Amino acid sequence: GAVVSQHPSRVICKSGTSVKIECRSLDFQATTMFWYRQFPKKSLMLMATSNEGSKATYEQGVEKDKFLINHASLTLSTLTVTSAHPEDSSFYICSASPLSVDTEAFFGQGTRLTVV
Amino acid sequence: AQSVTQLDSQVPVFEEAPVELRCNYSSSVSVYLFWYVQYPNQGLQLLLKYLSGSTLVKGINGFEAEFNKSQTSFHLRKPSVHISDTAEYFCAVSVSGSSASKIIFGSGTRLSIRP
How does residue B85 score in pLDDT terms, banded at 50, 70 and 90? Predict the structure, then answer.
């Protein structure tokens, strides 16, 4: 089956620094990837749609300058949390679907970000 | 716009008892429906999905769900649960209706199994 890998799985950073999270489709190409955020004991909220070769599409209420998304290739999307603050601490998950089989989204294992 | 409602935030069940996790959706177009499971500090695993055809969908780990268009429901069931089924369960709907890639999730139901 299709595999989506996220890195790192856990990261702790200091307030004010930036953190980059990678999402890779290991055995398929994806023109579109999605980034979700999950607060403790809450559901997954769609943050943005990452589009290969063009700007990401952000959901309402998500700061695009805060959460920078780059989709430079058909197998890699990155989410950079800029000038991180403790309130950015969360579980971030990406997903992607193969171009030829779009009847299922495959999720990465998630990245737990803790800002101290 | 599509939305998903999971009516129960928590469902406690005794081991080997049956369970039903409720899910209702709203959409003005045809959609794909999904159930995902999330174990603590892990990503999501697809349990089952409804795309079209038979309204009774069987998934992994003995789970099944029934699509009911008239009631706009997609309830998840298992006839006999195990301790290992303790997890968070999310019902989800695809946004575009013709692609599963962009998904909106319900609020989740925490299933806790008592011995």
Answer: very high
What 3-state DSSP class applies to A98? Answer: coil
The dihedral sign for the CA sequence B79, B81, B85, B88: positive
pLDDT digit string (tens) for A21-64?
A: 999 999 999 888 999 999 877 888 999 999 888 899 999 999 99
* Contact criterion met (CB below 8 Å) for A80 and A18: yes
The Cα-based distances of A98 to A2, A22, A32, A33, A79 in angstroms read 8, 18, 9, 10, 20
Residues 6+ apart with CB under 8 A from B19: B11, B13, B77, B78, B81, B85, B111
Q: What b/e readout covers A37-63, taking b as 16+ CB neighbours within 10 angstroms?
A: bbeeeebbbbbbbbebeeebebeeebe
Q: What are phi and psi of A57, to 5 degrees?
A: -105, 120
Q: Which of A47, A102, A109 to mutate to test the interface with B (most CBs of B within 10 A)?
A: A102
SS3 B37: strand
- Chain-chain contact of B103 with A109 (C-beta, under 8 angstroms): no
Joined tokens for residue A78: 């990155």
Mutate to test the interface with A, among B31, B101, B111 (most CBs of A within 10 A): B101
